[in-house]
Design brief:
Elements: E1 2-6, E2 9-15, H1 21-31, H2 33-40, H3 44-56, E3 65-70, E4 73-81, H4 91-101, H5 104-120, E5 132-138, H6 147-161, E6 166-172, H7 176-184, E7 188-194, H8 198-207, E8 215-222
Length: 223
């Protein structure tokens, strides 16, 4: 647990627990509405239920999720994958979870869309020895208070304690605020992945959805 002063309250950054799941999924759904609308093809309420189920069944790891908590409750989250751990859930487990919430046709589309997201984002980092910052998000009403910067520092601290010398992440081209933050923090772009590239193009055709961006920047920083 790591505490920092964040006027007018104390901000605590700690590893997430089961009691945080609803707050985590609300922040994820609110912060990445287009991404999850593309991935699952359902409304925000149903998206939150799917994400909560993924957490409760261990398909998204609480051990790799940290929350920023103030007197207002959980106001931000980060999901950090350290080297040697799987980034995405087993395909059969993901399929089974989707079928709990969606029809067969909806599940087929959602499974394809999730494959697109994996290919565009985490796909190139699966075998990387560099920790991967999967997600960093702050509630809308608590943005511009330095919480995102605090979470980013915490991610770098965790990676450093794990003996790693670098940290990596993806950020989409439409998220100008995040791009600016990462550049200020010393992240350097290593390349881009377009939503229509190679396998993603075929899967996008099958998914028939819109992800809300055209490309993702892969960025790396030395710690």
């Amino acid at each position: 647990m790591h505490c920092v002063t964040n006027a007018p309250s104390i901000l605590t950054i700690r590893q997430a627990s089961a009691r945080d799941i609803d707050a985590i999924t609300d922040i994820l759904t609110d912060s990445f509405c287009l991404k999850y609308r593309y991935s699952f093809g359902v409304n925000p309420s149903d998206t939150s239920e799917i994400l909560a189920d993924l957490y409760r069944h261990g398909l998204i790891s609480l051990e790799e999720t940290w929350v920023a908590e103030s007197d207002a409750g959980v106001v931000g989250i980060l999901i950090l994958h350290l080297p040697g751990k799987p980034i995405t859930p087993p395909a059969i487990s993901l399929w089974s979870m989707l079928r709990r919430h969606l029809s067969f046709a909806q599940s087929l589309k959602a499974f394809a869309r999730c494959a697109v997201m994996h290919f565009v984002f985490e796909g190139r980092t699966v075998k990387s020895p560099i920790p991967y910052l999967n997600t960093l998000a702050v509630q809308h009403r608590h943005r511009s208070k330095g919480i995102g910067t605090r979470l980013l520092h915490e991610a770098m601290r965790i990676a450093d304690e794990a003996g790693c010398s670098k940290i990596s992440l993806h950020v989409v081209d439409t998220n100008k605020g995040a791009i600016s933050l990462y550049q200020r923090m010393g992240f350097v772009e290593q390349g881009t992945q377009r939503i229509g590239d190679r396998l993603a193009l075929a899967l996008s055709w099958l998914a028939c959805g819109r992800a809300g961006f055209k490309k993702a920047h892969w960025m790396v920083k030395s710690i």
